[in-house]
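Protocol step 4 of 5: obtain the predicted structure for the target chain.
Materials: sequence only (see below). No template structures provided, no constraints applied. The aim of this step is simply to have a reference model before the mutagenesis design in step 5. Sequence pasted as it appears in the construct record:
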Amino acid sequence: MPEPITEQGQRVLTLWQGSWVAAFAVGILVWGLIVWSVIFHRKRSEQLPPQVRYNMPIEALYTVLPIVIIAVLFYFTARDQTALLSTEEAPDTNIEVVGFQWSWQFNYLEQSKAEAEEQGSEPQTRFSVAGTPEHRPTLVLREGDVVHFDLTSPDVIHSFWIPAFAFKMDVIPHQDNEFQVKVKEGTAGTYAGRCAELCGVDHSRMLFTLKVMEPGDYDAWVAEQEAKAKQQQLETAEQLESGVENPGTGIDLPGPEGEGPEDEVTDEEPAADEPAPADEANVPAAASEEAGR
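Step 4 output (structure tokens):
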């Protein structure tokens, strides 16, 4: 097992280890009884052993014991599942994860979708980071943060999986899922992320990178992304007012909520920590073209 970088991942690891302890205990008991039977009840003569119709203590044991084992495993599984899916703790960061054929877009929100719905409004996007099958995006988190994820998909079922979380959840069209994690202190580094649900021909290229930063570095990165998002919004507004389309760059620069026109695909790779262009559905244009094929 990878070393979990979240408190929830540590709970999953503990449940996994406990299940193996129970499995080994049952295995040792069963194999011990088999070996005992082979040694002490081996054939010693041609005389037929005494015949019995039933043995109530043994039959009660192999009926009650499995029920007890299953009940104990069920209890710990249900307890941990409830804790893993709890979203009651106030989050420090809200991120909408959009899984599409065949990449990811991470929208950093002002508040979670559930909170916005309670207030009768739409969640506001601070900035976005998007990728394509050729250029994997980078999800950036801060050490010690409680992070709330809203999962959505515009096409087919995907699965948001970060092995270092020891946890994954399906991304289902028209069915938003959500979960929260508490990132441990001292876990700054780079980790792998991927789709764990067969979602189409380029499923194997649906990769992303998780980067956990120390608080100071993360705050500087967020400030930089927000400044770039505001600059993109201003440039887009100026283009709309002047009626100018594509001022020679080959790529339109919409705002963080996908306010600009559809982007063109180029060979230039966007920086991992910069938000990539998105279309009006909050899905990068390059990925939309891939899905259209």
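Step 4 remarks: The chain has two domains: 7-40+50-84, 93-292. Residues 7-40+50-84 form one domain.
Proceed to step 5.
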